[in-house]
Specification:
single chain, 132 residues, mainly alpha, Four Helix Bundle (Hemerythrin (Met), subunit A), elongated
Length: 132
């Protein structure tokens, strides 16, 4: 994603994590498309999985600490994404390449829809509550 500026909201830790998350998902897509060797592909996938967990955990901790009113909806979106990612991982492990590509596209689309809507709303709330 070349124009990340549209997805930066002024909460530094969130903006940095979003950029890194998108870069890693793109790297995962490149690895799948280019037929990267298995160890490198699964290393990238493991990194993305850990990173998603850490990023969501950080967001959720701020939501809880500051009493974010949209927390329930946001947490449901995170759960859905984690389920999609796990399905992607399973498909890759069992070498279902076409469904892996399709699911990766869905994951990428989810991220690019989630950040400018749900995360933008959260970022606005965090910013107004002193998080920068």
């Amino acid at each position: 994603m070349k124009d990340f500026g549209k997805l930066a909201f002024g909460v530094l830790w969130m903006d940095i994590q979003h950029r890194q998350l998108i870069e890693q998902i793109e790297a995962l897509g490149s690895a799948l498309t280019e037929g990267t060797d298995k160890p490198r592909f699964f290393e990238t996938m493991s990194f993305v999985e850990r990173y998603i967990g850490e990023h969501f955990h950080t967001e959720e901790a701020y939501m809880k600490k500051l009493g974010y009113p949209g927390a329930e909806r946001h947490l449901a979106a995170h759960s859905k994404f984690i389920g999609e990612f796990r399905r992607f991982k399973r498909n890759c492990i069992y070498r279902e390449t076409e469904s892996s590509r399709e699911l990766l596209t869905r994951l990428s689309d989810w991220v690019l829809k989630h950040i400018p809507t749900e995360d933008k709303s959260l970022a606005r709330f965090l910013y107004l509550n002193g998080c920068r």
